[in-house]
Structure formats: C-alpha cells, structure tokens
# Entry
Amino acid sequence: QVRLVESGGGLVQAGGSLRLSCVGSGNIFRFNSMGWYRQAPGSRRELVATIASGSRTNYADSVKGRFTISGDIAKNTVYLQLNSLKPEDTAVYYCNANLLIDYWGQGTQVTVSS
# Structure
C-alpha cells in the first residue's frame, strides 16, 4: 500500500507565497518521478510540475518563473514553492508519484484572494 500525504495549503493574498510538501510511505522501492497537479472547480486536473531522477524538472507554462519544485526521489519527498500567487492559481493541489502506475495524495486546497 502506497500512501502520499500532502501539507502546506491555505489561504493567501495575491502576490503571496506558499510551500507544499508531500511525503510518500508504504511499499515503495523508488518512484520514477514525483510531482504536483491541480484541479480548479469545473476544470480538469492539470500538471503543475514534476521532478524525476537526476533532478530533471518540468513545469506548466502558466507557473514557470513563479513555482519551484524540489525534492528527493530516493526519499519519496517532493516540495512545491509557490511564489507570486494569482487568483487563477486557486485549486486543489494533488501530489503525484509514478512507479509503473500513478499514485495520488488526497489533495490540499490553495486559495488565492484578490
């Protein structure tokens, strides 16, 4: 049983910052990659950022230059630093980990007020 636990969401004003954390536990050898997705009300879940072995990162165009993903795949941990937040960043943010299949956390709410 693989479990991903997120923390760090909350309410922040536009221009503010948050830091999300995700730790994986359970029957894990090593994930291929970890990352963050988000889903706003009425919208599809979308990729925010991913990190793979060798610290290779990938970002959605909408967050490049504002969000930074970091972590240690070997330790099953991933973080997301969210800076210069905008109201359109409001969503439930989900931690994702891939090891042949995708695993998902329960989600953490990020709300950005204007």
User: Anything to note?
Assistant: The chain is about 0% helix and 60% strand. The longest strand covers residues 18-26.
